[in-house]
Task: structure prediction
Amino acid sequence: MESTHYKILVVDDEEPIRKLIVTLLCQKGHHCVTASNGLEALDKIMETKFDAVITDIVMPEMDGIALTKELSRHDQSLPVMIITGHNEKYSAEPAMASGAREFINKPFSTTEFVQRRGRWF
Result:
């Protein structure tokens, strides 16, 4: 069990992906809150302090790149991981330029996700 437990906001419009990420993080002892789009995520960020955010890129209302830019304006120290299943359309470069610390393509293995999570928070 890890000695530090984080409060993480998981943002994805696909419920099965949100549930998978929450399960993986809760197994590591972290507390998760979910949102289904960027606007909902921003509302939750204004209400609660989070230690990290994991967001999809393609979502209704506000995409993950716009969300990450807003989060960076709000708190540059907040670590953000961007995930996407649209590998041919989105790359790590614009994600990192928007303020993300990590980028991962879907589908990802649970091992890969846990390893990458450990690199940025």
